[in-house]
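Readers outside the structure-tokenisation community will struggle with the description of the input data as it stands. I therefore recommend that a typical entry be quoted early in the introduction. An entry of this sort, consisting of the sequence and the corresponding backbone structure tokens, reads as follows:
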Amino acid sequence: MALTFTLDPAVTPDLRDGLLDLGADVTNAGGAVGFTAPVTREDIRPELVRSLARFAQGHSRLLVGRDDEDGAGRVAASAFLTFNTHRLMTHWLWLYTVMVHPKHQGQGYGRDLLAAAADAARGFDGIESIRLGCRGGLGLERFYASCGYREVGRVPGAIRVGPGEYRDDVTMLLDFG
């Protein structure tokens, strides 16, 4: 079953709760979305509130993928497309907090999410490319490369996931040119 993607959905309690569940489930399954396991919804909440505030202010756009496997239309994937405010960098945007629920991974939904994000970004006036950062050491660079992104930067050991445990911060780019 394919996911149904919506750009800029209404932020309802159901959506907010779905994003909290998604963030916690992804992190606790080993996903690299800004936290380290174990986390609860309450650990995720402050960052989600900040992201939703940027969305409400027009600095970001929200893309949500829902499954209708059980008729409930649960949040199964999401990403924030965040605009640059610096006048020399408004031709590209960041893709943040790219998540697919663990039960859906390996089914092509990550590719679908990235394709939906690229389609949305192509429709934004003046946007020529998407940048995203990912945590090294998990194979994410290979996944993003298989979706058309290329590695354009790497800072060794920039992400500390635990005492004495570091990962590279990898910047990937999808150029529409």
Q: What stands out?
A: Helices lie at 13-28, 41-56, 109-122, 140-146. The radius of gyration is 16 Å. The first helix runs from residue 13 to 28. Strands lie at 4-7, 60-67, 74-83, 92-100, 129-135, 150-162, 165-175.
